[in-house]
Amino acid sequence: MKWTEQQIPRQDGRVAVITGANTGLGFETARRLAERGASVVLAVRDAKKGELAAARIDGDVSVQELDLTSLASVRAAAADLRAAHPQIDLLINNAGVMYTPKQTTRDGFEMQFGTNHLGHFALTGLLLDLMLPVPGSRVVTVSSTGHRIRAAIHFDDLQWERSYSRAGAYGQSRLANLMFTYELQRRLAPHGTTTAVAAHPGVSNTELTRNTPAIFRGPLTWLAPMITQPAAAGALPTLRAATDPSVLGGQYYGPGGIGEVRGLPELVASSPDSYDLTVQQRLWAVSEDLTGVRFPVGTATGTRTGS
């Protein structure tokens, strides 16, 4: 069955927290969930931009300041969200950076790994106990086809201190997003209420590409209409992962077209490396140590998740 925005069920009474929701994929995800009746929280770094975005969305929308490059900000945002909401139905880890020049977060993590993975890992762990009592609650983490490109978890140099590759660091962060989802799902499975799902937008025309090296910008300018899709279309895999009643924990959704570049959302497979249980579990342990966040779910079983 072709899945379109018309298949999004009513979301009345549900609370959805979406990171990076003032623009691009996050904004489109927030807009459609609010239209379906959800109470949507735009968790964004710039509160003023968040308020401007909220004003463009019809429905129950609020703004929460959140800077994923700072664990102190992540903890403060989680505390605010806990005070404002007794339960959370959807946590959509959407915000991200791509191909940034070599730089670090406020806590000294490589920017892409720190923002795309560690910030979301910490936020999820700090909010998960508000989700566990809620049947049908979901953690949706947005990854990328970039998880296949020069991608590995470099435990010997996670922060790229010895050498730096924009593409390699991005691939590591997006591979980490998937490994986090699969490991989280195994830990959630015994609880039977909350599931972890991943999605990717294909190649979408958003601000995420603003750090693309200059040598590629010219070709991308004229190729863009042929190889990209609008943010509204790119948000559909996330929306399906978040709302389709048939979705199972540990699944991964992306565009169904050739090369998963664009098209309507379908169940897709991630790279063989992403299913490595040993690496998933090691990454989890390292992420807990780096962030200082412990999850309210036990050790996972050895069963493989994902498709």
Would you mind describing this structure in some detail?
One of its GO terms (molecular function) is oxidoreductase activity. Belongs to the short-chain dehydrogenases/reductases (SDR) family. The protein is an alpha/beta fold and 307 residues long. The chain has a single domain, classed as NAD(P)-binding Rossmann-like Domain (Rossmann fold). It is built from nine helices and eight strands. The chain has an eight-stranded mixed beta sheet, with helices on both faces. Helix 4 links the parallel strand 4 and strand 5. Helix 3 runs parallel beside helix 4, helix 4 packs parallel to helix 5 and helix 5 packs across helix 9. The longest helix is centred in the middle third of the chain and has 23 residues. About 4% of the residues have low confidence.
List keywords for this structure.
307 residues, alpha/beta, Rossmann fold, eight-stranded mixed sheet, 9 helices, globular
Task: Give a quick summary of the entry.
This protein is of the alpha/beta class.
Write the layout of secondary structure elements.
Elements (H helix, E strand, L loop, with lengths): L14 E5 L4 H12 L3 E6 L2 H9 L5 E5 L5 H14 L5 E4 L17 H17 L10 E5 L23 H23 L6 E5 L14 H14 L3 H4 L1 H8 L8 E4 L9 E3 L9 H15 L16
CATH architecture: 3-Layer(aba) Sandwich
Tally the structural domains. 1
Helix proportion of residues, in percent?
25-40%
**Beta strands, count:** 8
CATH class: Alpha Beta
Major β-sheet strand ordering:
3-2-1-4-5-6-7-8
Question: What is the SS-derived class?
Answer: alpha/beta
Radius of gyration over alpha carbons?
Answer: 18 Å
What name is given to the CATH topology?
Rossmann fold
> What form results from the Cα inertia axes?
globular
Instruction: Look at the structure and name the CATH superfamily.
Output: NAD(P)-binding Rossmann-like Domain
**Mean pLDDT over the full residue set:** 92
Strand content: 5-15%
Q: Biggest sheet, open or closed, and with what strands and sense?
A: 8 strands, mixed
What is the number of helical segments per DSSP (H or I, 4+ residues)? 9
Low-confidence stretches are: 214-224
* SSE order, one letter for each helix or strand: EHEHEHEHEHEHHHEEH
The oligomeric state is single chain
* Terminal residue distance: 18 Å
InterPro entries: NAD(P)-bd_dom_sf, SDR_fam
GO molecular function, one term: oxidoreductase activity
Protein name: NAD(P)-dependent dehydrogenase, short-chain alcohol dehydrogenase family
Keywords: Oxidoreductase
